[in-house]
Design a protein that fits this description.
Blueprint: H1 4-11, H2 13-26, E1 34-38, H3 42-49, H4 53-74, E2 78-85, H5 93-117, E3 119-124, H6 132-145, E4 151-159, H7 161-178, E5 186-188, E6 191-193, H8 198-203, E7 215-218, E8 237-240, H9 250-262, H10 264-273
Parallel strand pairs: 1-2, 1-7, 2-4, 3-4, 7-8
Antiparallel strand pairs: 5-6
The chain binds farnesyl diphosphate (FPP).
Farnesyl diphosphate binds at residues 39-44, 57, 60-61, 64, 83-84, 88, 99, 102-103, 106, 155, 220.
Length: 274
């Protein structure tokens, strides 16, 4: 599905020139540092186009690739995509297999892009639930790109935020236990002293490699977080778009960033109050 000439096409030509002009105008305002996406509506897109669901997912992966390139050009440093939730294992095995095959293909393509553009790729989630070959490929890609800091792409796979929190709590307890500190807080006069702090939990989150998102986009017209970055999104700008994910394009991105810029003062103030 992916070919290197597709990427070269996106980077070059008059479209790229117009996009860069548009982005230059957008950069007059504050640019989000981190954009997260719930890529919903791939099967609805397939139905609409009368193609099979699997081709719909391919189109979704291509839309993600476009978003990554636009974000790099715009100056957004972190992009996080919800590729596969732990709950998605309940889908038809053939569909699960297709998304896994797509993940493997994406790992190959990302290996190429990461070298070309110094992209750090991080897979966030319960990776033990992946097959051994995908786990190996993902780990190799994470290790080989760990030194890059131009741009950080996080693919949330076998992910739910509740699983992430459980994992982080477990790791924090283990750490405190090993240090002989204990995990239960105690009364300290009128105060209650916690032995496990928020920073301990955050250190062990799968998403510890990125700051909290500034914008969380969900396509497909839904208003749910579906267990995605629930801990990290308390101060972020939520944007629900009616468009299905494979149709997400540069104008949707511009619209969302303009909306974020309009509300920026509010979010910046909220963050400072925390
Ligand atoms: C890099 C990488 C691994 C890319 C993954 C590609 C990709 C687009 C994954 C989406 C997975 C998914 C379950 C989306 C939900 O849409 P849905 O199909 O449930 O949409 P619907 O609401 O129309 O049913």
């Amino acid at each position: 599905m992916f070919r290197e000439d597709i990427i070269i096409h996106i980077f070059s030509g008059w479209r790229s020139f117009l996009r860069k002009c548009l982005f230059r105008v957008l950069r007059v305002g504050p640019i989000p540092s981190h954009i997260a996406v719930i890529m919903d509506g791939n099967r609805r897109y397939a139905k609409k186009k009368k193609i099979d669901d699997m081709t719909g997912y391919d189109a979704g992966a291509l839309a993600l690739l476009h978003l990554i390139i636009y974000c790099m050009e715009l100056g957004v440093k972190y992009v996080t995509a919800y590729a596969f939730s732990i709950d998605n294992f309940r889908r038809h095995p053939e569909e699960v297999q297709k998304i896994m095959d797509l993940t493997m293909e994406s790992v190959m393509l990302l290996t190429w892009i990461s070298k070309l553009r110094s992209v750090r790729v991080h897979f966030a989630g319960n990776l033990q639930l992946l097959s051994a070959d995908i786990q190996d490929a993902a780990k190799r890609l994470m290790e080989s790109t760990a030194g890059y800091n131009n741009f950080v792409l996080t693919i949330c796979i076998c992910y739910t935020c509740s699983d992430e929190i459980l994992h982080a709590v477990e790791e924090s307890c283990k750490e405190k236990w090993d240090d002989g500190i204990g995990i239960m807080g105690y009364d300290k006069g009128n105060d209650y002293e916690r032995l496990i702090k928020v920073v301990d939990i955050e250190k062990h989150m799968y998403m510890a490699t990125a700051p909290d998102p500034d914008i969380l986009i969900r396509t497909g017209g839904e208003y749910r977080l579906s267990n995605f970055l629930v801990w990290q999104s308390s101060c972020c700008h939520l944007s629900s778009l009616g468009t299905v994910w494979p149709e997400f394009g540069v104008f949707h991105l511009v619209w969302v960033v303009l909306d974020f810029q309009q509300n920026y003062r509010y979010f910046a103030k909220k963050k400072l109050q925390l």
